[in-house]
């Protein structure tokens, strides 16, 4: 499959053997899109550490580079060093460097890192250029930021510490993306800012999830889904069409690549990519 721009796919580490088999099946199917890399998330406070490591190493052995997400909040320099050494020794060449969130109920940081920029600086100082470093970006602002301007300054600080590229939180407003990119460029930062694309497989779940992570669902989009009523076929089709149009608009607006939140399934993402490549 010849996608119009390079793509990458995100997975989460499965909890069961059956989940792992499903992940490998989706991984094999998504390879048809010639992705640049696959990434594997990391649970809050390191709760999925061993599963993330095992998943990423298995994926990396299957022909396409795999990148672990690594959140630093609550971690010590030593534990992060040990983890990065394991990844380096296993041939991993890219890290998605994050602050992460403390598990609910925990206060303070209780660790050696306060922000993702601290982790980027640490990776560069201890491991030089061993890893390409991805960081997170929030075109609609990180939910805890004081304001968009400060959040963009904090984003640029991650690039100044050595991040090579960024992946965004998902969003449905092209202008939020173009505005974010233009503000970042005004600050002299030129790293790739790759839109994170969330396929819509279950609209009600998406609404719940989006509230929690601060992604805005525009009114026109809510109304379009409401107009489908209970017609699941129409809802599905609308979800695909809407994301295909979003991807086209983003590419036209200069998005250099696309990163898909696969949710460990191949069909929703492939349905979008097939329409996008036509
Ligand atoms: P940071 O960049 O550190 O920013 C966090 C907040 O602190 C922002 O509001 C920022 O403006 C502010 N800030 C930054 N620097 C400073 C400073 N010097 N002074 C004051 N304020 C500052 N979470 C997981 O647990 N596991 C994952 O695998 C995971 N993967 C993700 C992948 C992507 C692509 C994205 C977009 C998010 C992911 N997350 C993941 C969620 C992420 O961990 C949370 O959004 C977290 O709250 C912020 O992480 P960050 O790396 O963006 O933090």
UniProtKB/TrEMBL annotation:
<dbReference type="InterPro" id="IPR029041">
    <property type="entry name" value="FAD-linked_oxidoreductase-like"/>
</dbReference>
<keyword id="KW-0560">Oxidoreductase</keyword>
<dbReference type="Pfam" id="PF02219">
    <property type="entry name" value="MTHFR"/>
</dbReference>
<keyword id="KW-0486">Methionine biosynthesis</keyword>
<comment type="pathway">
    <text>One-carbon metabolism; tetrahydrofolate interconversion.</text>
</comment>
<dbReference type="GO" id="GO:0005829">
    <property type="term" value="C:cytosol"/>
</dbReference>
<dbReference type="InterPro" id="IPR004620">
    <property type="entry name" value="MTHF_reductase_bac"/>
</dbReference>
<keyword id="KW-0285">Flavoprotein</keyword>
<dbReference type="GO" id="GO:0071949">
    <property type="term" value="F:FAD binding"/>
</dbReference>
<dbReference type="InterPro" id="IPR003171">
    <property type="entry name" value="Mehydrof_redctse-like"/>
</dbReference>
<dbReference type="GO" id="GO:0106312">
    <property type="term" value="F:methylenetetrahydrofolate reductase (NADH) activity"/>
</dbReference>
<dbReference type="GO" id="GO:0009086">
    <property type="term" value="P:methionine biosynthetic process"/>
</dbReference>
<dbReference type="GO" id="GO:0035999">
    <property type="term" value="P:tetrahydrofolate interconversion"/>
</dbReference>
<keyword id="KW-0520">NAD</keyword>
<comment type="pathway">
    <text>Amino-acid biosynthesis; L-methionine biosynthesis via de novo pathway.</text>
</comment>
<protein>
    <recommendedName>
        <fullName>Methylenetetrahydrofolate reductase</fullName>
        <ecNumber>1.5.1.54</ecNumber>
    </recommendedName>
</protein>
<comment type="similarity">
    <text>Belongs to the methylenetetrahydrofolate reductase family.</text>
</comment>
<keyword id="KW-0028">Amino-acid biosynthesis</keyword>
<keyword id="KW-0274">FAD</keyword>
């Amino acid at each position: 499959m010849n996608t119009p721009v390079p793509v990458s796919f995100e997975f989460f580490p499965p909890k069961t053997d059956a989940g792992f088999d499903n992940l490998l099946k989706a991984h094999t199917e998504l390879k048809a899109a010639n992705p640049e890399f696959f990434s594997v998330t990391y649970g809050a406070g390191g709760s999925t550490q061993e599963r993330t490591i095992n998943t990423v190493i298995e994926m990396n052995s299957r022909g396409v580079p795999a990148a672990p997400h690594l959140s630093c909040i609550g971690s010590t320099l030593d534990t992060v060093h040990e983890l990065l050494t394991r990844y380096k020794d296993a041939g991993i060449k890219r890290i998605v460097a994050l602050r992460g969130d403390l598990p609910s109920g925990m206060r303070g940081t209780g660790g050696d890192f306060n922000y993702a920029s601290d982790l980027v600086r640490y990776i560069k100082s201890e491991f030089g250029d061993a890893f390409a470093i991805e960081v997170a970006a929030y075109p609609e602002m990180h939910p805890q930021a004081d304001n968009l301007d400060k959040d963009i300054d904090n984003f640029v600080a991650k690039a100044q510490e050595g991040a090579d590229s960024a992946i965004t939180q998902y969003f449905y407003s092209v202008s939020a993306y173009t505005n974010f990119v233009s503000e970042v460029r005004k600050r002299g930062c030129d790293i790739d800012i790759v839109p994170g694309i969330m396929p819509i497989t279950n609209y009600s779940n998406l609404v719940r999830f989006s509230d929690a992570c601060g992604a805005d669902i525009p009114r026109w989009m809510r109304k379009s889904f409401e107009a489908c009523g209970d017609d699941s076929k129409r809802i599905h089709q609308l979800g695909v069409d809407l994301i295909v149009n979003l991807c086209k608009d983003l590419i036209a607006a200069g998005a250099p690549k696309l990163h898909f939140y696969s949710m460990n399934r191949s069909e929703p993402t492939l349905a979008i990519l097939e329409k996008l490549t036509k």
